[in-house]
Amino acid sequence: MAFDDFLGNRPILETVRSQLASCRLPHSMLFTGVSGIGKWTLAQFIAKACNCLRLKDDFCNGCPNCQRISENAHPDVKNVAPEGQFIKIDQMRSLSREVFFKPFEGKCRIFIMDEAEKLRDEAANSILKTLEEPPDTSILILITSRPNDLLPTIRSRCQMYPFAPLPLADVELLLQGRTSYSSEERQLLARIAGGSLGKAVTIDLAEYRRQRDEMLALLEACSRNFLYANAARAASGWLDKRKQAEFDSKTGILFTLLRDLFLLKAGAETQALTHADIAGKLATLSSLYSINQLMNATQSLDHLEAGMRRNLNRGLAADQFVLRLGGVTSNP
Fold first, then answer.
1. Are 29 and 159 in contact (CB under 8 A)?
2. Residue 7, pLDDT score
3. In a designed cystine with 74, which of 68, 113, 166, 300 is the match (CB 3.0 to 4.6 A)?
4. What band does 242 get if pLDDT is binned at 50, 70 and 90?
5. For 214-236, how does the pLDDT look when each residue is reduced to its tens digit (9 = 90+)?
6. Could you tell me if 31 and 44 are in contact, meaning their C-beta atoms sit under 8 angstroms apart?
7. Which of 218, 190, 174, 201 is nearest to 276 (CA)?
8. Is 17 helix (H, G, I), strand (E, B) or coil?
9. What is the rounded CA–CA span in Å between residue 195 and residue 175?
10. Which 3 state secondary structure label does DSSP give 301?
11. pLDDT tens per residue across span 112-160
12. pTM of the entire structure?
C-alpha cells in the first residue's frame, strides 16, 4: 500500500504529494471532514513517507520504519487521543516538549492528534506557540470532524485540508467486496453513512433499522392529533440514560429523518433522500407537518445535541423538541 492506494479526495492527496516533493509540507496541518473518510489514514501515510527508508516522497510499507509506524511502535510518530472525554493540558505540555526533540530513528517527528475538537480551552491555548513556530524536524497533524468546535486561534495557525465524503457509488462498490449485503442494503448503508466508508463497514444494519423504527414512531406520535403522553411514551427509549450510545445514534437518525421530511416538502426526488427505502412512509409523514414545525424541531434537536456536551437536562430539552415538533410551541 502506498499513496496511490488512498481512496477518494484526490485533490488533497495530490496537494500533499506535491508539498512532499518540493519539501514544503506545512509543519502544522488540520484535516477536517466527517469521520471515516481517510483523514487518519492519510496522516499515517504522511508519517511513513517522511520516514521511509527505501522511497522518497512515498512509502514502501515494508521497511522497518513503515512497519513500526503501522504497529504504532515508532518512537518518532506519536498518536495523541482524548483521555476520557477531553484532550488535557498535561498531554499538550508533554507534546510541546517532545516536538522540539530531534528525531530518534527517523528523518522527521510526526504528531497526530485525533478528535482535536476535544481539546480543552486551556490545553488548546498551551500549544498555540508550538503550532505557530514548530521546529523544522516536526510535523503536527490535527484531525477533527468538528472544526468549528476548535478555537479560532488553533484553526488560524494550521493549514486546513477539508476532506469531502466519498461518492456514494464508490462506497457501495467497496462494500460489495467487504460485506455480504444485497445491492439494496449496500445502497442504504452508503446513504446513511454519508459517504463514510469507515462508518458504513461498522453499521449493524438490523440494529440501525430497529432504532430508525423507534424514531419513526416518535415522529408519528408528534404528528396529527398530538398528545404529549403518546409523544413521551414514544421518546422513552431514546431518553434512557442507561443507553447513552443509543441516544447518540438515535439523535443522528432523527436529524436525517427530519432532513428527508424537509426535502419532501420541497419536492425532492426519492434518490435525494437518505432513507429512500422508506420514501412512501416519509411522504405520508411529511404531509402531516408544516415547514415551521420541522424548522422549529430541527433547531431544538440541534440545541439538545449540543447541550449534551454541557450536561443539559436531557428530559427538559427533549420535551421542548416534541412540543415544537407537535406544533404546540415554537421558537422565539
1. yes
2. 85
3. 68
4. confident
5. 999 999 998 877 888 888 888 88
6. no
7. 190
8. helix
9. 12
10. helix
11. 999 999 998 999 999 999 999 999 999 999 999 999 999 999 999 999 9
12. 0.80
Cα distance between residue 187 and residue 172, in whole Å: 6
Answer for the pair 16, 25: CB distance below 8 angstroms, yes or no: yes
Is there a contact between 22 and 8 (Cβ–Cβ < 8 Å)? no
> Is the CA virtual torsion 42, 47, 48, 52 positive or negative?
positive
Architecture of domain 3-162: 3-Layer(aba) Sandwich (3.40)
Task: State in Å, rounded, how far the first CA of the chain is from the last one.
Answer: 55
Which residues are CB-neighbours of 102 under 8 A, at least 6 positions away? 137
What cell does 7 get? 481512496
Task: Report the C-alpha gap between 177 and 305 in whole angstroms.
Answer: 35
Q: For cell 452508503, name the residue.
A: 190
DSSP characters for 182-248? -HHHHHHHHHHTTT-HHHHTT--HHHHHHHHHHHHHHHHHTSSS--HHHHHHHHTTTT-TT-HHHHH
Spell out the domain ranges in the chain: 3-162, 204-325
Domains 3-162 and 204-325 share a fold: no
Place of cell 498518536: 79
Average pLDDT, the chain: 90
Grid cell in block for residue 12: 488533497
CA angle 81–87–93, rounded 5-degree value: 100
Unique residue bearing C-alpha cell 506535491: 18
Q: Which amino acid does the sequence have at 238?
A: W
Number of residues written out for the chain: 332
Q: In whole angstroms, what is the distance from residue 10 CA to residue 45 CA? A: 14
* Separation between Cα atoms, residue 296 and residue 160, nearest integer Å: 33
| Cα pseudo-dihedral 155, 157, 159, 162, rounded to 10 | 0
- SS3 of 61-108: the string is CCCHHHHHHHCCCCCCEEEECCECCEECHHHHHHHHHHCCCCCCCCCC
